[in-house]
Amino acid sequence: MKQLNKIESIIMVVGALLMVVGAVMGLFKLSWFPFVYAVGAIGFASMQMLQRYEGRNLTIKRLRGIMVLSDVLFLFTAVLMFANQGNALGLDWIYYLNYIKNNWVVLLLLAAILQLYTTYRIDHELEKEAKKQ
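^ thats the sequence. predicted structure below, dont judge the formating
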C-alpha cells in the first residue's frame, strides 16, 4: 500500500476526529453538526482514496474497492445530515419522514462497519503477503 506522507496522515486523522465530533453533535441536535462532519468526511475520504495498492493480490484489490465504497457512504452520510436539517428537498412530509429523517445514522453505521472490516482484512492480507516474500 502506498503510504501517506506526514501532512496527509494528519489530515486523515483530523478528518476522522471531525467525523466523530460531528456525529456526536448530531445526537445532541446541534444545528451546525453537518458542517463539522462534512469537513471531516471530505478530509478522511480523500486521504484514504489517495492510498493505492500497487500489488497484484486480488483480495486486497477487492477490499480496497469495498473501502472506497465505504468512503463514498461516509460522504453520502454528510448529504443526508444536511437533508435532515429540514425538508430542504421539498419532498412530501410523509416521504421526508420515511426516507430522510435520521437515516444518516444507518448509513454511517454501515460505512463504519465496512471500514472496520476492510481495515482489519487488508492489514491481515498485507502481513500474509509480506511473509511470502
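The longest helix spans residues 104-132.
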